[in-house]
């Protein structure tokens, strides 16, 4: 998927990885539909993109709503004609002991992190299949690749599911000429920490480990979009993650025990 001349829709575009990705898509010649619940953040990004000579429209919305993508997709298609590149990127985090996180909170996280991607894909995929052209990016996480923390189980479940769904979509879509990229970032300096909901007072969030460097969103976006333009499926922000995956694959029992606190 070459970005020059493509039309993209990015969710979670007002902040962090989504913002940096949308900005870089526009810099590489894509028109970008910016979706986020933070309307002011979208406005400031659209102004940045326009000042740099790019094209963006803002589509403020809460994508936890079941019907959000009916209007969002229609508005994006009305502006650009068709959407070639969908980046399902919104993700939120809740932490707490497993016995403290209520099932309703599982529902909130899975709805936003996983089912919003399902809904966006369900709405935009038929056009891509009909055209035999398109690309879907799902932002997962190291949290979906190997175990490192017990304090964020709904998040882990949503990210592991996104990895599995991306793999299945790739099997189905690549033979039809449609690309899929499963993007798994490790630590990236974004706003996600400010929105963490904690269900157990006093526990500090646990990262994947000191072996992983904290990246800037622009670095993550560049890694991602180079991979999208090269039509790569599996993309990690830090190759150290592959070492963890190899260790886990070689001996899952020993690997789990090595990660016990
Ligand atoms: N930052 C990291 O270290 C890291 C690591 C691995 C994976 N990720 C993943 O990267 C993705 C982007 O996260 P980020 O770190 O850039 O976070 P961020 O908080 O900076 O950006 C997330 C954006 O999503 C928007 N959003 C939240 N709820 C929404 C809703 N209901 N409707 C519409 N928009 C909504 C927020 O307003 C925000 O602009 C997420 O899926 C996250 O899980 C992040």
TrEMBL record:
Record's protein name: SDR family oxidoreductase
InterPro entries: KR_dom, NAD(P)-bd_dom_sf, SDR_fam
Matching Pfam families: adh_short
Ketoreductase domain residues: 6-191
A GO MF label: oxidoreductase activity
SMART domains with a match to the protein in the record: PKS_KR
Assigned protein family: Belongs to the short-chain dehydrogenases/reductases (SDR) family.
The EC number(s) this enzyme carries: 1.-.-.-
Organism: Sphingomonas immobilis
Superkingdom of the organism of origin: Bacteria
Keywords of the record: Oxidoreductase
């Amino acid at each position: 998927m070459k970005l020059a001349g493509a039309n993209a829709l990015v969710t979670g575009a007002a902040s962090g990885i989504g913002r940096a990705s949308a900005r870089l898509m526009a810099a590489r010649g894509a028109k970008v539909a910016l979706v986020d619940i933070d309307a002011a953040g979208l406005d400031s990004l659209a102004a940045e993109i326009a000042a740099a000579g790019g094209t963006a429209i803002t589509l403020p919305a809460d994508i936890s709503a079941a019907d959000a993508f009916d209007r969002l997709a229609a508005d994006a298609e009305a502006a650009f004609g068709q959407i070639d590149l969908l980046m399902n990127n919104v993700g939120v985090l809740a932490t707490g002991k497993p016995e403290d996180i209520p099932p309703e909170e599982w529902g909130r996280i899975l709805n936003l992190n996983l089912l919003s991607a399902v809904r966006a894909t369900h709405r935009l995929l038929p056009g891509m299949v009909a055209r035999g052209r398109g690309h879907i990016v799902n932002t997962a996480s190291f949290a979906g690749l190997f175990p490192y923390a017990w304090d964020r189980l709904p998040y882990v479940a949503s990210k592991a599911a996104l990895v599995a769904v991306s793999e299945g979509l790739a099997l189905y879509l690549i033979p039809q000429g449609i690309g899929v990229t499963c993007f798994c970032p490790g630590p990236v300096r974004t706003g996600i920490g400010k929105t963490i909901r904690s269900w157990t007072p006093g526990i500090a969030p646990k990262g994947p480990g000191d072996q992983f460097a904290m990246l800037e969103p622009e670095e993550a976006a560049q890694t991602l979009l180079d991979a999208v333009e090269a039509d790569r499926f599996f993309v990690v922000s830090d190759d150290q993650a592959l070492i963890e995956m190899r260790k886990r694959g070689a001996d899952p029992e020993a690997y789990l025990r090595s990660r016990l606190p």
